[in-house]
Amino acid sequence: MSEISELKKQLRDELRRKRLAHAETLPREVSALVFSRPPGPVLDLVPEGATIGLYRSDAGEAPSAGYTRFFFERGHPIALPRVTTLDKPMEFRRHTDPYGESDLEAGVWGLRQPGTDAPVVVPEVLFMPLVGFTAKGDRLGQGGGYYDRHLAAHPQTIAIGMAWDMQEVPDLPAELHDIRLTALVTPTRVLGPF
Predict the structure, then answer these.
(1) In which domain, by residue range, is 141 found?
(2) Taking the model in full, what pTM does it have?
(3) What's phi and psi for 161, nearest 5 deg?
């Protein structure tokens, strides 16, 4: 493992602990409200009718369900990631039931994802989870490289990170495959476009 990879792993572990501790201290009503509707500067980045890629938030991550329902109600096609094996690229498939989630099934790591019968789509706008970020739009992801590979294959994608304010760090170690975000939204501000 390279020195940068090891540094990223240590930083991920520390930031994951802090992120989870932060999210657990928030009353459920508060965390649901802060990400219930994208702020105006974020909406300005979203083309009319664009397919919106989101994620189904895991413990500690910025909650994404409010944005999913918001864009669904506005008529945008919604897509969620589907991972089949750890060595294959992530693909996005249509998500048609953001309220009941009847179109989702258990996937890798126990995360719910669209089934194999859902159409494959390529989101024009992609809201992404992260472990850490900088004020310049650098993102530290979970470590699998799925989002970086997807963005490298689809460079026209508008990539917007979603995070808690406390996930900001002054600097992140960068590797050649790391792709900077287009913008980032937290409960208190929008950073970017970068």
Answers:
(1) 3-191
(2) 0.91
(3) -85, 150
